[in-house]
Amino acid sequence: MSLRLNAGVPATEVAEEAGHSVKVLLDIYAKCIDGQKATTHRRIDSALGD
């Protein structure tokens, strides 16, 4: 699951595949998510047309 989260798959989709709620998924795997900040900022900038 951490591989999927780190690849940018939305937590809602990963949770559904795992049979967990998003809360349970993130309680377990949030510590494994790495490097998402830069990707998130690029996506926001792109959506804003920057």
Note the run of SSEs as H and E.
HHHH
User: What does the radius of gyration come to?
Assistant: 12 Å
Helix content: 55-70%
Q: What separation lies between the terminal Cα atoms? A: 32 Å
From the helix content, strand content and strand pairing, which structural class follows? Answer: mainly alpha
DSSP summary, beta strand count: 0
Tally of helical runs? 4
Low-confidence region ranges: none
Mean pLDDT: 87
General shape: elongated
Strand-residue proportion: under 5%
How would a crystallographer describe the biggest sheet?
none
Seen as an oligomer or otherwise, the chain set is: single chain
Topology (SSEs and partners):
Elements: H1 2-6, H2 11-18, H3 22-29, H4 36-47
Tell me what you see in this structure.
The protein is mainly alpha-helical and 50 residues long. It has helices at 2-6, 11-18, 22-29, 36-47. α2 (11-18) packs across α3. The longest helix is centred in the last third of the chain and has 12 residues, at 36-47. The chain is elongated and about 35 Å long. It starts with a helix and ends with a helix. The model has no long low-confidence stretch (mean pLDDT 87).
List the keywords.
mainly alpha; 4 helices; 50 residues
What's the quick description here?
The chain is mostly helical and 50 residues long. The chain is built from 4 helices and no strands.
